[in-house]
Amino acid sequence: MKLLFTILLINTSIILAQNNNLENQNKTGSSSDWTAPASANKLNNPLAGISEATINGEKLFEQNCTTCHGNSGKGDGPTADMLDTKPADLTSLKVQKESDGALFWKITTGKGAMASYKKDLSEEQRWHLVNYVRKLGEDSVNQNKRK
Fold first, then answer.
1. Bridge partners of 114?
2. Which of 57, 69, 72, 108 can pair with 128 through a Cys bridge, CB separation 3.0 to 4.6 Å?
3. Which residue from 51, 62, 63, 64 is spatially nearest to 134, judged by alpha carbons?
C-alpha cells in the first residue's frame, strides 16, 4: 500500500510539474532541442573520475530519475509515455557529447516535465548524477561492443 501511494505521489508530482511548465515548454520546444547556455560549458566537474561519486550518483538516479528515464537511462521509464515530451535517452551520443557543465545545468535548472533539482539535491549530489550519466553512456557503448 505504501509503495502504491509513493508511485501515485511521484506520478502526480510529474504531471503537476509538466502542467506548471507547459507554457515554458511550448516556447522552448522538445527535449531534443534543449541546449544549455554556453556559460554552462565552462563549469568544471569537481568530482570527475571519482568512483565513489559515481556510485552515489547511481543511488540518486534510482531515487529521482528512473520513473522517467528508466533503469538504464534510455528515456523509457514507467511514466515516460505519460509525458508530452519524451525524456532524453541519457545513453545517446547527443547527450554524451554534452559537457559535464551542460548536464549539471540541466539537472539544476530543469525544463518542462524535467524537474529542477536545485532545491532538492545539493550541488555535490547533482555532480554525482553527472558522473552517473557518464557511466550510463560508457555502459551503453560497452554493451554495443559485445553485440
1. 111
2. 57
3. 51
Output the nine-digit C-alpha cell for 116. 529542477
Asked if residues 20 and 112 have their Cβ atoms less than 8 Å apart, the reply is no
Q: What are the angstrom distances between the C-alpha of 69 and each of 1, 20, 27?
A: 24, 20, 23
Q: Helix count (H) and strand count (E) of the chain?
A: 7, 0
Task: Spell out the domain ranges in the chain.
Answer: 2-146
DSSP string, 6-73: HHHHHHHHHHHHHHHTHHHHHHH--GGG----GGGGG---TTTT-HHHHHHHHHHHHHHTHHHH-TTS
> What span, in angstroms and rounded, lies between the C-alpha atoms of 104 and 117?
10
Full pLDDT tens readout for the chain, 147 residues = 665 545 555 555 555 555 444 444 433 344 568 999 999 999 999 999 999 999 999 999 999 999 999 999 999 999 999 999 999 999 999 999 999 999 999 999 999 999 999 999 999 999 999 999 999 998 776 776 666
Indicate the fold that domain 2-146 takes in CATH: Cytochrome Bc1 Complex; Chain D, domain 2 (1.10.760)
